[in-house]
């Protein structure tokens, strides 16, 4: 994605706000990227349709390129769609004993995840947990859970042959009440494909046990199939959340977005390994980053936005609107640039940076030059900074001596300021590109 998008960046130029054309071309690439990340087509379409009006007309943040800003907007949109702006949702386990029912296809990781949740509830939440396997079709499955329980030191319901799933569920809830357990996790039987008997059985268990949480476990690597599974289970059971397993594999996270979009259910945890500690609390930001593969750009734009102190920006905009842009303002621009890690730091994070860096180098603009120019401004009195016209020959000499430079360097700064002031007045807003031009002149 990074390579493809740097192509888009080359075509975008610094303007006051994001144009329809900028946004459309960037979104075309993002559409392909989302599909490659295994996001379902209808989800991609909806997402692009939602994001476009949000991006068009948005003010361009100084010092980032429009294409990058589109990515930031897309990233924020993904985070929101993944439920990142909701309050953290753990498991609901207030009514004791709380029943957690695990549903999903065979092989999706239900039993493994049952163990992981039990371990977390025990160690992290200090709960007393009972696990029960309702998989009456595969005796090995019941044994698997028992062994798992021994490993993580969590009790399992003793195995009794010849019972129906709903009977085992009843026995488990009773045992939990009698034994003073906080949580019962029911590991239901799965099939390799969606079938009516499995769904009916699960629905029956759910009706009896009235689970506080009914969690669908789905294999992230199965992509579109996982989405279809989620849709079908959600139609039949009152699911309360999702857990995606095999996120340690090389799936790109698109399934997470699709499943969330299709079901509207929160993704609670991610399975990240075969062992019982391979469980992570779902983090929308990380998944959005994984889908976009643009983590660095996103953090760059975030930094740029944060560093441009709102108050200062506003004040400067007001001054500029009145046609005032003094040397103090110019020094402030330099400082902002340096806070962001200097030109080198910013450039290093941008796709397509090499080209831009070469252009700046050819204009003799680097961090050293910027530092020197700032030093010159600092050698002036506040009055001189506010009113550069005061700087006659003798004052210039004094400033040059103070900064340890030749008078011609002082003249350069003044000339640059004049150009920038003129430009700022015209634009009302300054992009880095324009600033760079003025600096090199
Ligand atoms: P169930 O049939 O739904 O109960 O699935 P299991 O819990 O028995 O898991 C099936 C296989 O997937 C086992 O080999 C697990 O070790 C493996 N598995 C489960 N979750 C994960 C995960 O998050 N990452 C990886 N790499 N493997 C997993
Ligand atoms: Mg199982």
TrEMBL record:
Catalytic reaction equation(s): GTP + H2O = GDP + phosphate + H(+)
One Gene Ontology MF term: 7S RNA binding
GO cellular component: plasma membrane; signal recognition particle
Enzyme class: hydrolase
PROSITE patterns, per the entry: SRP54
GO biological process, one term: SRP-dependent cotranslational protein targeting to membrane
Cellular compartment(s): Cell inner membrane; Cytoplasm
Ranges for domain SRP54-type proteins GTP-binding: 266-279
PANTHER family reported for this sequence: SIGNAL RECOGNITION PARTICLE 54K PROTEIN SRP54, SIGNAL RECOGNITION PARTICLE SUBUNIT SRP54
Domain remark text: Composed of three domains: the N-terminal N domain, which is responsible for interactions with the ribosome, the central G domain, which binds GTP, and the C-terminal M domain, which binds the RNA and the signal sequence of the RNC.
Subunit structure comment from the entry: Part of the signal recognition particle protein translocation system, which is composed of SRP and FtsY. SRP is a ribonucleoprotein composed of Ffh and a 4.5S RNA molecule.
Function: Involved in targeting and insertion of nascent membrane proteins into the cytoplasmic membrane. Binds to the hydrophobic signal sequence of the ribosome-nascent chain (RNC) as it emerges from the ribosomes. The SRP-RNC complex is then targeted to the cytoplasmic membrane where it interacts with the SRP receptor FtsY. Interaction with FtsY leads to the transfer of the RNC complex to the Sec translocase for insertion into the membrane, the hydrolysis of GTP by both Ffh and FtsY, and the dissociation of the SRP-FtsY complex into the individual components.
Protein name as it appears in the record: Signal recognition particle protein
């Amino acid at each position: 994605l990074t390579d493809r998008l740097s192509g888009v960046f080359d075509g975008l130029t610094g303007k006051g706000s994001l144009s329809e054309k900028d946004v459309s071309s960037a979104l075309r690439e993002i559409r392909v990227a989302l599909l490659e990340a295994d996001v379902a087509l209808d989800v991609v379409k909806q997402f692009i349709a939602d994001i476009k009006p949000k991006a068009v007309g948005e003010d361009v943040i100084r010092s980032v390129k429009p294409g990058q800003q589109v990515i930031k907007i897309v990233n924020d949109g993904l985070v929101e769609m993944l439920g990142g702006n909701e309050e953290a949702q753990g498991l609901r386990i207030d009514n004791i004993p709380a029943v957690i029912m695990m549903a999903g296809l065979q092989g999706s990781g239900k039993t493994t995840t049952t163990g992981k949740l039990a371990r977390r509830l025990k160690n992290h939440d200090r709960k007393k947990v009972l696990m029960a396997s309702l998989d009456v079709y595969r005796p090995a499955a019941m044994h698997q859970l028992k062994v798992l329980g021994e490993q993580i030191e969590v009790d399992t319901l003793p195995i009794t042959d010849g019972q129906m799933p709903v009977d085992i569920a009843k026995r488990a809830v009773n045992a939990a009440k009698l034994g003073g357990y906080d949580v019962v996790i029911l590991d239901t039987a799965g099939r390799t494909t969606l079938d009516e008997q499995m769904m009916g059985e699960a629905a029956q268990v759910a009706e009896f046990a009235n689970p506080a949480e009914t969690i669908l476990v789905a294999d992230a690597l199965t992509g579109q199939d996982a989405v279809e599974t989620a849709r079908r289970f959600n139609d039949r059971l009152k699911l309360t959340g999702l857990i995606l397993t095999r996120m340690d594999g090389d799936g790109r996270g698109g399934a997470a977005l699709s499943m969330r979009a299709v079901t509207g259910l929160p993704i609670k945890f991610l399975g990240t390994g075969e062992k019982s500690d391979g469980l992570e609390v779902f983090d929308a930001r990380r998944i959005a980053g994984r889908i976009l593969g643009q983590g660095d750009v996103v953090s760059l734009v975030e930094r740029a936005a944060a560093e441009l102190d709102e108050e200062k920006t506003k004040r400067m905009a007001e001054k500029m609107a009145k046609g005032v842009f003094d040397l103090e303002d110019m020094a402030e621009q330099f400082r902002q640039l340096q806070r962001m890690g200097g030109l080198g730091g910013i450039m290093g994070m941008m796709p397509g940076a090499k080209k831009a860096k070469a252009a700046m180098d050819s204009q003799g603009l680097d961090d050293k030059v910027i530092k020197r120019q700032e030093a010159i401004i600092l050698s002036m009195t506040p009055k001189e900074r506010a009113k550069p016209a005061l700087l006659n020959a003798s004052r210039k000499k004094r400033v040059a001596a103070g900064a340890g430079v030749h008078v011609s360097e002082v003249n350069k700064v003044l000339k640059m300021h004049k150009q920038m002031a003129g430009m700022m007045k015209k634009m009302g807003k300054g992009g880095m590109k324009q600033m760079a031009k003025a600096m090199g002149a």
